Amino acid sequence: MSKVALMLAEGFEEGEALTIADILRRGQIDCHMVSINEEVVKGAHDIHVKSDRLINDDLKEYDMIVLPGGLPGEANLRGDERVISLIKEMNDNNKFVCAMCAAPIALDKAGVLENKNFTAYVGYDEKINANGTFKEDIVVRDGNLITSRGPATVYDFAYELLEALGVDSEPIKKRMLYDLVFGGNR
């Protein structure tokens, strides 16, 4: 079974993080919400979430790392050298490195956006210094790198994560009435 580390730092975007965890778990993915500090993490909108575990070296064995956005969550992830080191190591081992909303700026600090296509929240194309190509697509996948725009794009992002891990997202989309809401045009 694939293992995913969904990183939580104070100020994370709750809607993104919890939707990603929910959809991955519906797909039978072993998704752990991993705090970089305390067991209970305060989100950007004052919602407190109990993490499954704290950051440690065991995460290097995971198949995917996912960074939700949110402010100041992205700054807290970007400012934690353990997170940056984990991103670099997973990328070097061709494991999936994924971020959405404001969090791709942490991928920039880790140097994994170089010569890659990526996306991020509106305006972050001007904040990210990578020598990559910013796209305005909802979700951008370039090899082992998967990025997305913001809170409203979390469903497409999470379904893409499932597909990257070899899980057919269509039955989950159907059970969640995704096509009914989004018109099946995605």
Description of the molecule:
With 186 residues, the protein is α/β, with parallel strands linked by helices. Helix content is 32%, strand content 22%. It is built from seven helices and eleven strands. The chain has helices at 14-26, 73-78, 81-92, 104-110, 154-164, 170-175, 178-182; strands spanning 3-8, 30-35, 40-42, 48-50, 53-54, 64-67, 96-100, 117-118, 133-134, 139-142, 145-148. The strands form three sheets. Strands 5-2-1-6-7-11-10 form a seven-stranded mixed sheet, with helices on both faces. A two-stranded antiparallel ribbon has the order 3-4. Strand 10 (139-142) and strand 11 (145-148) form a beta hairpin. The model has no long low-confidence stretch (mean pLDDT 96).
Cross-sheet strand order for the largest sheet? 5-2-1-6-7-11-10
**Estimated structural class:** alpha/beta
* Alpha carbon gyration radius: 15 Å
**What is the terminal-to-terminal distance?**
27 Å
User: What sort of overall outline do the alpha carbons produce when their principal axes are compared?
Assistant: globular
Order of helices and strands: EHEEEEEHHEHEEEEHHH
Determine the fraction of residues in helical runs and give it as a percent range: 25-40%
Mean pLDDT: 96
